[in-house]
Amino acid sequence: MTTTPHDAITMLIADHKKVKVLFKEFEKLSDRSKVNKKKIADQICHELTIHTQIEEQVFYPAVRGPIKDNDLMDEALVEHASAKELIGQIMDMDPADDLYDAKLKVLSEQIEHHVAEEEDDMFPQVRETKVDLVGLGAEMAAFKATLEAAQS
After folding, report:
1. Residue 20 and residue 105 in contact, taking contact as beta carbons nearer than 8 Å
2. Cα-atom radius of gyration of the chain, to the nearest Å?
3. Which residue in 41, 59, 69, 116 has the fewest CB atoms around it within 10 Å?
4. Cβ proximity of 15 and 141 under 8 Å
5. Cβ distance 72 to 121 under 8 Å?
């Protein structure tokens, strides 16, 4: 495990890339790969659940005031709520169920849109502030470790 401090934005972008790879892996699977589909879908849902908690409970509260863009922050929270709804449905489903793949596809598209807004709009605004991104990154890493431990 690395002890190199990472800033908060770098950590979030790493999460974004990890989930993007998982969505691509899911899309490559055939309809006969039910076990692998479930495994990857569950991993996607797990990663997104942890990620949204970190953003909502640590990152967003720390940057909302400094960037002074309540519309962008509010939209991000609404996007999270929509994603969480789909995640809940996917977690309760089996890959053989009707609409399973469609729900994963829609979740992928929603996340892609959300990530683009964060990386293209929110993160550049945050980088212009005086927010201690390394300190915030350490706080987020500690919170992530706590969440991971609670789910294992």
Report:
1. no
2. 16
3. 116
4. no
5. yes
